[in-house]
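Quick start: read one record
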Amino acid sequence: MTTVHEPTTTAASAELSVWPASTTQSPDGDLAVGGVPLAEIADRFGTPVYVLDEAEVRDRCRTYRHAFPDAEVLYAAKAFLCRAMAHWMDEEGLGLDVCSAGELELAVTTGFPPERIVLHGNAKSPRDLDTALRLGVGRIVIDSPSEIARLAAAVGPDGHQKVMVRVVPGISAGGHEKIRTGTGDQKFGLSIADGYAQHAITRILDQPQLELTGLHCHLGSQITSVKPYLVAVRRMVGLMSRLYEQHGLVLPELDLGGGHGIAYRPGEEALDLTALARKVRTELTDACTTAQLPVPRLIIEPGRAIAGPAGVALYRVLSVKHTGDRVFVAVDGGMSDNPRPALYGVRYAPRLVGRPGTAARTPVTVVGRHCEAGDVLATEADLPADVRPGDLLAVPVAGAYHLSMASGYNLVGRPPLAAVRDGAARLLIRRESLEDIRSRDVGL
């Protein structure tokens, strides 16, 4: 995808490289997204507030469909889901990958076709499985041996459910150890190396009400190299070949998951989607030809790569504190609306908006309002030296794993989210109020 902005200096253009393509900059340095000034959104909805560029979301969906025309593209709803997002995915022809009964019910009650939904989860509850069967979910990904008997019993002798098996291919990939899921030392899936995957598949084949349609793997998140996916293809096709030799089984689907890395700050590396599509397609064809197997239909599950770059978080500066040689800029949000920095050490590139920053820039640490030393949004953030309380800071690449992981810490209430498109902003998720919090507290 090409990011287009109004003509600015080369440095300014580079600074905007991680912003939505609709981002424009006025002569005084103010920014608008989707034709709506960010300062106007903050004034209208208050802060903290999240902004989601609908056109950017849709454009990224179309980019995936163009790059993978023969594949099934499932949006990983855990990145961020609301009713509007489910509606956009439906209109753009994507399926959904969900991880709970809550995500599933929200999507289906919005009108999303359940047959285009895949249910994941390493520890699916009885409610998760019952809801999936009641609503007619397309496929359920089996993640542990115990799920086989539980699911078969829930389906019943006269029922039918399509399933896949999550396989651990033994590949370490991802931007942080806490988001690497393709190795055997974590909680997901069934390992090829120790034979658990093969054993589980044999058990599934003994359950006539379960139809095994394919294999699934997910290597991790924030992967910026194509190579791990190519290794995964070879290992997954190798397992498919062994299954054919042992059971005469030809599986029609192969799901390579997601984890496609994006840039959070200018200059950071992102996964080359075009190269990924071309090389995976070639690798899959070659591996299947060698194994004398038909090429299965490819399934991919991007989440962050669709939602992340479409989002912007807006905060008000509450205080500026000089401590030794450091400057701390505290804002009215933090780890309750964006826990990623505390969990993974991720850092962002916040920007002053709403007024021209004429002072020289200086490195500052942008921190949240919560009572944790780890509540840090950005270190070495390049902001004007005259940044002061009341200023508005905008944080790009805020569309994934922010609001979806938001908490009620310190009872500050989760922020609202507004969608922008064609010069208009509309509220999709309202701010969580004190009354919302009180209404859940039913004892005394």
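The mean pLDDT is 92.
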